[in-house]
Predict the structure of N-acetyltransferase GCN5.
Amino acid sequence: MRTEPLTAQTWPDLENLFGRAGASNGCWCMYWRLGPRYHERPRAENREELASSGRGLLAYDGDLAVGWCLLAPRAELAWLARARYVAPVDDLPVWSAPCFFVRRSHRGQGVTGVLIDAAVEAAGAAGAPALEAYPVDTSVAGHTRNLFPGVASAFERRGFAVVARRAPDRPVMRFPLTGPDRS
């Protein structure tokens, strides 16, 4: 598997991955920018906003896009500041990987892990001090079944640590990219 950033050239691959309606019922990865308001907008408007933002990574199996990860500076994702359980931990200008989508035929095959690794590399190359994620802790009884933010164990295996937990099943996890341990 390989990864590529979202560009004008890879946009058709994302459209193929998401399908005509857009992943997650027309979200087009606008939830973390708009919150639940994304439902009130036409799907085409969500699609166009993602196309113009140009932020994210695609995972490929051969020439087929099989996974997606939204990746952007946290400051560009306004809903993250408003969502109680993932509100900022501090003032560090982290990048965020808050959303994943994997083609049904490729689920359970490590696509999310490939995307997490690529997100760490891309955020580091962009000069981010850390990469944050807001996964679901599936070891917690009664956890949400909405796994689009990823699963905590996948991040933990890659060196992410919990820096806050405001809901039992929703840790804020962080991977340091600069500083004494990473420079």
